[in-house]
Amino acid sequence: MNTSNVTAMKNWILLLLLVNGLTTYCQEIHTDSINPHYLEDQLYTSITYNILNNKPNGVKQNGFSGGFSIGFIKDIPFNTRRNFGIALGIGYNYNAYIQNIKFTETNNTVTTTIATNFRSNRYAVNAIEFPLEIRWRTSTPSDYKFTRIYVGGKIGYAFHTRSKLSDDNGLVKTKNIAAFNKLHYGLTAAIGYSTFNFYIYYGLKPMFKGLSIGEETLEVSEIQIGFKFYIL
Predict the structure, then answer these.
(1) 19-52 CB burial, b ≥16 within 10 A, e <16
(2) How many Å apart are CA 121 and CA 153, to the nearest integer?
(3) DSSP code of 91?
(4) Full-model pTM
(5) Radius of gyration over alpha carbons of the chain, in Å?
């Protein structure tokens, strides 16, 4: 084993020890320091599988379309038990869609067709998101494992988008096309116990405007299904 591999292994071991120690310390604070004015679930991250809804004829997903988000959300309890309230937050969201729509941009004009005989085709979206949740949970000041039901919605603003298609003719790339709806919104739900929570987002606004494939308007929206994790 060469020196670089040994160094990398040492760094990974140190990182694992640090994360383990920090997690243990946070749990001890949570359980040993009982605070009647406690707050819960103010940091979040999610991992999702993305589904294109309302697809025109011929449009297909072919591959794993994944998403990821991370952010801060302020817990605002309403009652004395602090198990019912709302939460407002801000976060970063990345989503990729593996499908067969070919975007071509010429003189700032975008056209869409069904791609054939291609190796890969990805449409990626980077966005800032603003979630709002109505929260109910079975938490207590001393119990950090509890059932939660959080429903609400979120508004997102895409600050960078890009499509990349690879076929026998090479690469076809577009970015930040004007036809993409930068502002988007939808409904959310996160339901689970302790660390793992089932999560779903249902988009209410089409992803694109003014585009068509053949004689059909391109009005695809997004559905995201996966897991959401809350800490602190």
Answers:
(1) eeeeeeeeeeebeeeeeeebebbeebebebebbb
(2) 29
(3) E
(4) 0.83
(5) 22
Contacts of 192 (CB under 8 A, 6+ apart): 147, 148, 198, 227, 228
Give the burial class of 5: count Cβ atoms within 10 A of its Cβ; 0-12 exposed, 13-18 middle, 19 or more buried. exposed
- What tokens appear for 142 in the block? 């001393």
Q: Give the pLDDT means over successive 10-residue stretches in the chain (232 positions).
A: 44 45 48 69 90 92 89 94 95 95 82 86 96 95 88 98 87 89 97 91 95 88 93 80
CA distance 193 to 131: 20
d(CA 134, CA 231): 17
**Distance between CA 210 and CA 183 in Å, rounded?**
15
Whose CA is closest to 183, among 154, 212, 220, 224? 154
